[in-house]
Amino acid sequence: MDIDWDELRSSATEVAQRAYAPYSRFHVGAAALADDGRLLVGCNVENAAYGVTLCAECGLVSQLHATGGGRLTHFVCVNGSGTVIMPCGRCRQLLWEAGGAALEVMTPEGVLSMDQVLPQAFGPEDLR
């Protein structure tokens, strides 16, 4: 499957403009493709109680499950100006769960597999 990374990044940049970030003013957008071809997006949603802020990746994974489930296959995260950024550690764990080792992630250093982004990840198989 040929992936149009520019289009995926454009979708992330567009949704970043809808972020609710009145405190940090740091808008984040995320876009991904599911294994059935669905485009999924998410943006950060801050809260005055900073610890309960929702990352863009959280909204995206919620949309994955709310629209039928499946697995993520390709993912990108950008700031409000469209610059590719890395997901935080918590979100890397969330993406591992939703896409696994083979999930392709656009990073500031190019496209990497999720097992390169989060080596030796903790996953569902570790709970057995």
From TrEMBL:
Entry annotated with the keyword Zinc: yes
Q: What cofactors are annotated for this protein?
A: Zn(2+)
Instruction: Kindly list the residue ranges recorded as spanning the membrane.
Output: none
Question: So what does this one do?
Answer: This enzyme scavenges exogenous and endogenous cytidine and 2'-deoxycytidine for UMP synthesis.
Which UniProt keywords are listed?
Hydrolase, Metal-binding, Zinc
Q: Which residues form the CMP/dCMP-type deaminase domain?
A: 3-125
Name of the protein in its database record: Cytidine deaminase
